[in-house]
Amino acid sequence: MLSVTLIIRYVVLGFLISLAAIIAVRLLTGSINTSGLLRSKSPRKDETVSPARVQLLIFTLATAGTYLSKVFGALGTGQLPEVPQDTLVALGGSHVLYLGTKAYAFFLKGAVQALREQHSSD
User: Fold this and answer.
1) What is the full DSSP assignment across 7-20?
2) Same domain, 9 and 44
3) Containing domain of residue 48, as a range?
4) Tens of pLDDT along 56-111?
5) What is the rounded CA–CA span in Å between residue 54 and residue 6?
6) Whether residues 78 and 20 fall in one domain
7) What is the DSSP letter of 107?
8) By the 8 A CB rule, do 113 and 105 touch?
9) How far apart, in whole angstroms, are the C-alpha atoms of residue 46 and residue 50?
10) How far apart are CA 53 and CA 94, in angstroms?
11) CB atoms within 10 A of CB 94
12) Fewer C-beta within 10 Å: the chain N or C terminus?
């Protein structure tokens, strides 16, 4: 007879696999819009590829892949592997860089341009 924890484990695993399959199918069929995912959005409508978004995506995927490989390596132990402190610091730094560029674009870029325009008109 199957234990309750084993049944719950299979139900949760089935749910996660189903969710991943639904997302994969929707991404492949285009019902999840990914156009402009890596483009910077500015008020001037000059949507170029954002280096901050590219580095954030690459670093996040690399970190997730590394951790996932550790999870598969720890199968059968009953525990999740530890996340190294260096990885957390690097991932946090990557996100801070991205959010810093967003904050600059949102708060400071307009103020800097206004000061330049005011200085050039004087």
Assistant:
1) HHHHHHHHHHHHHH
2) no
3) 36-121
4) 889 889 989 999 999 988 888 888 899 889 988 988 888 898 888 888 877 777 77
5) 40
6) no
7) I
8) no
9) 11
10) 10
11) 19
12) N
